[in-house]
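Sample intake sheet
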Amino acid sequence: MTPGRNPDYGPIRPKRVFEEICERIRNELSAGNLRPGDKLPPERELAERFGVSRTAVREAFRSLERSGLIGLQKGPKGGAFIQAGNPTVRQSLEDMVSVGQISLADLTEARVLIQDSIVRLACKRATEADFAALEADIDRTEELTLQGRLRERLDYSINFHKLLARITKNEVMIVTIDALTYILRIIINKLGPHPRLDLVESRRRFLKHMRTRDTEAAVAEMTDHLTRLHQHLVREQQRIDRLRAKQPAHGPTLAQKPAKPANAAKIRARPAAKRTGRSAPAP
């Protein structure tokens, strides 16, 4: 064994209550009793059914949300909903990223190749309703950018790729892009969201190419975007690595010092015609 490495071979501990709840829900999903879009019973009701505390159910919900199995929505019609996609694929990729088996270069190369196929299929199969959904996502992304709500903007930026994948009507494409964007979100959250002020213009150009069924132009726009995103992520990772190397052994971690959000007022003040500078890309 390599010196300095210390695998944990300690005693196996019994499962905690919230882990048992997670396993029960996963089993129901595997058995087909739960399907994407289904709403789970409220927290209080589940606690009563399982004979556990609401705290345990709440912790289970958080764990299932992190794994991508459920989505938690607020409001009168909110609750815990089973997500589409394959959380097993997500978890496998996340594990590979954690141990260094997947690099940023690997991720970008895979996204470029897969998005190429997705864009080509989407250009052929998109309907007016699909175009409207993409445009609504772009409009919301622009609103959130101007308001400086970068975390929410990231959700819509990533959702754009999911909408695009769904247009293909190909489940393998949908599951694959869901897993890849999930990993991308993890990476961006670690580095901190940075607004790309020309993202909306790029998305609108892309949608224009799709509406005219100009496949090659749409593919070129998407590939250019993904390439610039990769270059930005590499620069950010290098910056963090340099800062980490300068930190004292027991100093605060970079995770405790998230990147400072962009000033919303400055974003608003910038004329639309000038929002084409090459700044940090979004997903």
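Comment: The CA atoms of residues 166 and 174 lie 6 Å apart. Residues 215-246 form the longest helix (32 residues).
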